[in-house]
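Deliverable D5.2: sample structural annotation.
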Amino acid sequence: MLNHEINKAFRERLNQGGAILMPGAANALAARVIDQLGFEAVYISGAGLTNTYLGMPDLGFVSLTEIAHHTSAIRNATNLPIVVDADTGFGNALNVHHTVRTLERAGASAIQIEDQINPKRCGHFSGKDVVDLDEARSRIKAAADTRLDSNFLIVARTDACATQGFDAAIERAQAFIEDGADITFVEAPRTVDEIREIPKRLIGTPQLVNLVVGGKTPIIDFDELDQMGFGLVLYANVALQGALKGMHDALSILKSDGRMDESGPVARFEMRQGAVNKDFYDEMEARYSRI
């Protein structure tokens, strides 16, 4: 599918209502597994990318070039809509303009811009802060004005809960909607009551809720979040956390036993080749070898 067709279908799906369960992928292999399991969208997590690609914590180390590279690779691996975490947009409104153009060309279906200061921190770390409201709004306005495809979506995230309180975060999200945001994302609410209030107070615009395993936001069942009215339910790093646990377990056994076969805690060889669509390349190789 062409990217504008994917974007159009994604917007239409959001407008239909009903929550979308969206896992995060830190690389193209994870995106392929997410696609094969039948999810409707995939999220490129800045935290996951930083952890996986750099082996570093989510403290603003990943660059726009690195995010664009991975977005392009994931677009090549799946036709799912891709929501890309672009942190703060890498600066002011001018930087946001460049960020949107770069990631839209790379194959993103939506871009997430947040209101933290630079360098940003994980939304579930302590010590983060947000820019003043005028600067935050300028980022969202620039993003909305820059997109070339009208179906390319702007996700506006606020981290104001941590420093200014829940009400201030809701006020910021409302301002971002006025500035052209298609989806808003109030990061790190701390109680079920706060989570429930978000779609009640931001009516008419899809809301994203981020459930971080081990983070500050309570974990709530998907069906309950759907009934509350959320549009996107994000588990940004379940694939990463599962892979990390699996690597640790498999390698611990290898270290202790000095051997590993398919009876161990590893994917079978056929499963691995299926995940990367090897049959497709085998068929293509055979077709062109007959010319």
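Annotation notes: Residues 262 and 268 are 6 Å apart (CA to CA). The chain has 13 helices and eight strands.
The annotation will be released with the project's public dataset once the embargo ends.
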